Amino acid sequence: MRVSTFVLGLFAIGQAAFVVLLLVTLIIARTFRAWHRARTRRETEELLRAAHRWLLRKDGGQGFLDAVDAADFEVVMETLQRLNSQVAGDRLEFLLSDLRDTAWFSRVRTRATSRLWWRRLAAANAFVIVAMPEDLRVLETLITDPNRMVRLATVAVLKRLQSPRLVERTLKLAEASRSVARRYPLEVLATAPGFDLRIIAERLATPRDPKELRILLDLVGELGVPSFLDYVLAHADSPDLEVRIAVARTLGQFPHPSSNATLLSLIEDPDWQVRAQAAAGIGAIGDCGTAAALDRMLRDPSWWVRLRSALALRRLGDVGLRVLRDVRADEDRYAHEMAQYVLRLDDAAVAEYSGPSVVDFTEVAMAPQAA
Amino acid sequence: MEPLTRIVGAGDELIIVYFIILNSFYALLILLSIPELWNHWKITHSDNITRYISSEALPPISVLVPAYNMEAGIVDSVRAQLALQYPLHEVIVVNDGSRDVTLACLHEAFDLYEVPPAIPQRIDTAPVHAYYRSRRAPTLLLIDKDNGGKADALNAAINAARYPLVVAVDADTIMMPDALIRLARTFVIDSQIVAAGGTIRVANGCEIKRARLTRPGLSKRFLAAVQVPEYLRAFLFGRLGWNRLGGNLIVSGAFGLFQRKYLLRIGGYSTGNVVEDLDLVVRLHKLMQERGKDYRVTFIPDPLAWTEVPSDLRTLGRQRERWHRGLVRTMLSHWRMLFNPRYGRIGLITIPFFFFGEMLAPVVEVIGYLLTAAGLWTGALDVHFALLFLAVALGYQMMLSIWAVILEEATFRVYERPRDFARLLLYAFLEPFGYRQLTVLWRLRGFFNALRGLTHWGEMRRHGFSSPGDARDQTSDSGRSAAA
C-alpha cells in the first residue's frame, strides 16, 4: 500500500505540474495571439491601401508588390482572393504577372513541393489566382497529389488555364469519386473558359466503361454544346441502367426534335428510374406535342414517374394544365392524387421542384419504391 | 470482520484497475484528437470556402426540423434555416402534434397553402394530417401530423425529403450561416462519408437576435456555464479521437448530416428509443459493416450549431437521465455487436468502450464511493491513499476539461472576451466538485430506469431564444417538450 501511495502521490504531483504548465501555455498563447492579430491587421491594412492606390491608378503597382513582400503569406492570399473576386481584366493580369517576381511567389513555388499537405494546399489556392502556362508542370503534380483537398483546390485552376492534361486529370478525379462528391470537378470543367471540347468528343466516341460514359454524359449535359447531341443519342439504348438515366437527364438540356423523340422512347423503358428521368427531360424541353405521352405516364406504377410526369405537364402551360385537370379519380386514384398535388403547387414551387437534376435516380433506386 | 475487509479490499483494487484502464483510454483519445484537430484546423484555415459558396457543386440538402410546442421561436428558427448560406437546400418542418399555436404561427408567417398528400411513405409514421407549401418561401415544406415523438417526426421528414443529403436540426438549435457548407464540404472531400456531425455549443449566455447568434458568451448561471467545458470535452477531443479510431458512434441529433439513402435502408429513426441519434448511428454502422462497405461516420469540428442547455437542476437531471437510459437501451439492444469481429473496430473497440466505459461508468463510480467509505470504515483502505486517489481522480477530470479548453483556445477561439475565458477555466476547475457527482447520480437513475423498461422523454423546460434583446438567461418559458 505504501508503494501505491507513493506512486499515486507522484502521479498527483505530476498532474498538478501539468495543469500549471497548461495554464502557463494558455496565457502565453493568448498574448502571442494578440500580438499576431495586431500584426496581421496592420499588414492587411497596408496591403489594402496599396491595392487601393493601384486601383485608383495612383501608382503602377510597385507599392502593392512591396507590401506583398513585406506581408505574411496568408494575409497576401486573403487580399489576392478579395482582389481577384472584385477586379478583372488586363490590368489585374499585369499585376499578377509582376507578382511572380516577388518573394511571396517564391514561397508559393516552395510550398507546392512541400512534404506538408496544408502547404501544398496553400500553394494550389495561390495558383488558382496567379497561375500562368509556365506553371503547368507543377499543377500537373498538384492535381495528382495524394491529398484530395489539394487535388480539388488545383482543379479550380482550370477556370484560369487551359490544359488537356489538367482536363484529363480532372475527369479521372470525377471518376474516382462517388456521386455525391463528383459534382464539384464536373462543375469546374463545365464552367472552365476555352476548354478544349475535342477531349470530351474523343472519349465519348470510345468510352472505356459505363462509369466513364456516365460521367462524360453528365458533363455534356452541363456543357450543353449542341455538337455533342449525336454522341448522347448514340447511347440511348445502352444496356447499362445508369447510362440510360444519364442519357435521359442530359437530353433534357438539348431542346431538339431528336432529343424529344428519344425521350419519348425512353418513357417506355422497363426501369422506372429511366422513365422518371425521361419525363423530367420532356418537361425541361417543354414541347406541347408530348402531352398525350405524359398523360399516359401519369398512370405509371412508380410514384417518381407520376410526379415527374405531372410536373412536366405543369411546365407545358395550358395544354398540360388541361390534361392534369381531366384526370379522374375513378379511372386511376394515384394519377388523380398526383395531378391534384401538382395542380395545387404554385409556380415557384413547380420551378423549385423541377429545378436542376436534383434527384439522383441511381440513389433513389436503392430505396424501396412506393406506389 | 476479516472476510469483509478482504472483499472490500478486492473491490477497491478492481475499481482502481477500472479507473486506470478507462482513463488510459481517455488519454489515448486525447492523443488521437490532436492530429485530427490539427488536420481540420488546417482545412478550415487553408481551404477557400467561397469556392463552394459560389458553386452549384455541393450536393443539395434537405433540412429536417421537428417542432413540438415551439410557438415562441419557430418562425425565427425557420427563417434562419431558410437563410442559411447554401447553394441548394429545402427546409422541411414537421409540426409533431403541437398543442399550442405553432401551426398557426407558421401559416401566418409563410403564407402556407395545403397540397394533397402525394408523398411516398417509405417509413411508417404517425398519421399525417396535411402537407403545406409556402407562397413566400418555395423551398419550405410543412408537414402537420399526430404527435409521435421526435424520431417519428424526423421519419416523416425523411419520407418527404427530396435531396441526397439530409440534416436533422432541432428547432431550438441555431446553426451558424456557413454551417451547412462546412458540413457538406466533407462529403466533397471524402466520398466514403455516410454521416457527419458538427459541433454543438452552449447557447445560454450568448447574444441571439432573431434566431441568429450575434455574439458568443458564457451564461451567468453556474449550471448552464459549467456545461460548456463538458461540451467542449465531448466534442473537441472525444469525437475527434473516435474519428481516428475509425468508429464515431454519435452524430448529434441536433445537428448531423446523413446520406438519405442509407437512412431509408435502415428504416429511419427508431421510435422506441429516447436517444434516437445514437441508436441510428449504431444501426448505420451495423448496416455498412454487414454489407462490407467502405464508409466513414465522421465528426467535423468547424461547423457550429448552438443549443440551449438546461439551466435548472430538474430539467438537467431529466435530460441526463434520459441520455443514459437511451445509451443503456441502445447498448443492450445491440449487444450482439459487442466484441464481434464481424463489425470491425466498431464491434471490437467502440461498442465495448461505450458498454463498459460509458454505460457502466456511473454504476462503477457509485460502487467506488461506497467501497471507499466501507474500506475506510473496515480499515481495508488507508486514509491517505483514499484521499490521494480521490485527488488524482478529480484532478484527472479537471485536466481533461482544461485540455479541452486549450484545444478550443488553440483553434476556434469562440470565447474571445478575457472575462469569458477566465470563467471558462474556472468552471473547468469547479466541474469535478459536486456537479460531476450529480451527473453520476442522474446517470445511475437512467441506468436503472432503462432496466425497468421506461421509455418516456420527460418534460424539458427551456427558456427559449425568441424575445427581443436576448441575453438568454431569462425565465420566460417556451416550454418545448417532446412526449413520445
Can you put this structure into words, describing what you see?
- The complex is a heterodimer of chains A (371) and B (484).
- In chain A, 71% of the residues lie in helices and 0% in strands.
- The radius of gyration of chain A is 29 Å and the shape is extended.
- The model of chain A is unreliable at 361-371 (pLDDT under 50).
- In chain A, helix 1 packs antiparallel against helix 2 (62-70), helix 15 (257-266) runs antiparallel to helix 16 (272-285) and helix 16 packs parallel to helix 18.
- Chain A has 22 helices and no strands.
- Chain B contains 16 helices and twelve strands.
- Chain B has helices at residues 2-46, 50-53, 74-82, 102-110, 150-160, 179-189, 222-225, 227-245, 260-265, 276-290, 313-333, 344-359, 361-378, 383-410, 418-430, 435-452, and strands spanning 61-67, 89-96, 112-115, 128-134, 140-145, 165-169, 173-175, 193-202, 207-209, 212-215, 255-259, 296-307.
- In chain B, strands 3-4-5-2-1-6-11-8-12-7 form a ten-stranded mixed beta sheet, with helices on both faces. Chain B has a two-stranded antiparallel ribbon with strand order 9-10.
- In chain B, a hairpin with a 5-residue loop joins strand 4 and strand 5 (140-145).
- At the A-B interface, helix 1, helix 3, helix 6, helix 8 and helix 10 of A face helix 1, helix 2, strand 3, helix 6 and helix 9 of B.
What percent strand of chain A?
under 5%
Helicity of chain A, as a percent range: over 70%
Order of helices and strands of chain B: HHEHEHEEEHEEHEEEHHEHHEHHHHHH
**Cα radius of gyration of chain A in angstroms:** 29 Å
Helical fraction of chain B: 40-55%
Give the overall pLDDT of chain B as a whole number: 85
Strand neighbour order, sheet with most strands of chain B: 3-4-5-2-1-6-11-8-12-7
pLDDT < 50 runs, ≥5 residues of chain B: 467-484
Number of strands of chain B: 12
What overall form of chain B do the CA principal axes indicate? globular
